[in-house]
Design goal:
two-stranded antiparallel ribbon, two-stranded antiparallel sheet, little secondary structure, elongated
Length: about 80
Amino acid sequence: MSHSHCEDESHSHDHGGGSHSHDPPPDAVPGDSLYSKIDIDRIRCLNERVSGMAKSVIKPWDQRLDNTKVVSSLYTLTTGPRE
């Protein structure tokens, strides 16, 4: 049975046995971000190489693709403490 039930769609599709969603992907909705709930001043990161680095990687939605800021550890997985 083909029918159109979406106001913004001009095509018909069958709902016979498959399922699909008309919801946007989770990262496409900035209003759903938890960023405003995070207390940046209280973020703590153990073993960060430079104090405060972790705070820079918690970003608002519009900066989510910016990968220029990273957190480095005082330790490496294979050699132990960095010099």
